[in-house]
Amino acid sequence: MDTIAAFAADGGPVFLLVLFRVAGVLMVAPVFGSQAIPAPVKVFLSLVLALLFFPFVKGQGAGVPQDAGLLALAVAWELAVGLLIGFAAALLFAGVQFGGHLIDQELGLQQANLLDPVLNEQISIMGQFKVLLATLVWLLINGHHLLITSISDSFRAVPLMGMRFSDGVALHLSDTLMRDFFRMGIGIAAPALATLFLITIAMAFMARTAPEMNVFALSFTLRLAVGLVVIALGVGLFTAGFESRALQQSAAVRVLIGLLGG
Questions:
Q1: In total, how many domains does the chain have?
Q2: Three-state secondary-structure class, residue 52
Q3: Which residues contact residue 164 at a Cβ distance below 8 angstroms, ignoring those fewer than 6 apart?
Q4: At what angle do helices 143-157 and 39-57 cross, to 10 degrees?
C-alpha cells in the first residue's frame, strides 16, 4: 500500500497516461511500429519519450482519477488517442503499399508476396519496394522528428483525458486523410498503369494482324520488362512526390490533433 501511495503522490497516474498515449502512437506509426524493431526497444523508446514529456504534462494531473478502475479507463482513453494519431501518420505508407499492389496486378506479380517489416503484413513485391523506398525518404526528411513533434503537440492541444471525438474528426479522417491515401496510391501507380494499358492495346492490334504469333507469352514478358523500366525511371519522381506528400501528411496529422482537442 505504501508503494502505491508513493506512486500516486509522485504523479504516477499522470505518467501512466503519458506513457500509454506515446505507446499508442509508436505501436502503429510508420517505422516505429515495424516488426523489425524488437518489442523491448519499442518499450524503451516509449518510456524515454514519456519521461521527456512528463515534466511538461505533470500540471495536467489535477483531474486524473486515483481509483484503479477509473484509472484503467483513462489509460485506455489515452491509448486510443495515441492509436488514432499513429494511424493517421501510417495512412501515407498504406497508400504507398496500395499503389505498389496496383502495379503488381498489372505486371502479373500479385501471387508473389513478401512480409513487410514496416506494415507487419504480407504485401506485394512492388508494394515492398515502394514502402522501403518511402521509409528511406521519410527518415531523410526527418519524418521521425515530425512524428515526435506531433506527439508533443498533442499534449498541448489535447490535455490528458481531454479527447473529443467530434464530427470534425470523423470528417477529417474520411475526407482529408483517406483522400490522400487514394491519391498517394493512384499517383504512384498511374505512370506504370498508363504504359501497360498502351502495351495491352498494342498487343491487341498485333493479335488481330498476326494471329499466328503467341501474343500472350510475348505480352507477359513485354509488360514485365517495360513496367520495370518505367518504375526505375520514375524513382526520382516518386521520392520527390513522397517528400511533398509526407510533409502534407504531417500537417494533416497536426490538424487532426487540433480537432481531437475540441
A1: 1
A2: helix
A3: 260, 261, 262
A4: 40
Q: What pLDDT, on the 0 to 100 scale, is given for residue 149?
A: 93
Pull the grid cell for residue 155. 499534449
The C-alpha cell that represents 220 in the structure block? 507477359
pLDDT digits (tens, 9 = 90+) for 227-258: 888 888 888 888 888 999 899 889 989 988 88
DSSP 135-167: HHHHHHTTHHHHHHHHHHHHHHHS-TT-----H
Taking only the tens place, the pLDDT of each residue in 183-225 is 888 888 888 888 888 888 888 887 777 776 776 667 777 888 8
- What would the grid cell of residue 61 be? 494531473
Burial class of 192 by CB neighbour count within 10 A (0 to 12, 13 to 18, 19+): buried
The type of residue at 179 is R
* Domain enclosing residue 223, as ranges: 2-260
Mean pLDDT highest for which of 106-115, 135-144, 213-222?
135-144
Residues in Cβ contact with 92 at an 8 Å cutoff, skipping those fewer than 6 apart: 30, 134, 180, 181, 184, 245, 246, 249
Instruction: Characterise 108 by phi-psi region: left (phi > 0), alpha (psi -120 to 50), beta (else).
Output: left
Site of grid cell 514485365: 224
Of 118, 120, 123, 121, the C-alpha closest to 98 is 123
* Helix 68-107 vs helix 125-140: crossing angle, to nearest 10: 120
* C-alpha cell belonging to residue 160: 490528458
Name 114's bridge partners. 123
- Helix (H/G/I), strand (E/B), else coil: 228: helix
Q: Give pTM, 2 decimals.
A: 0.83
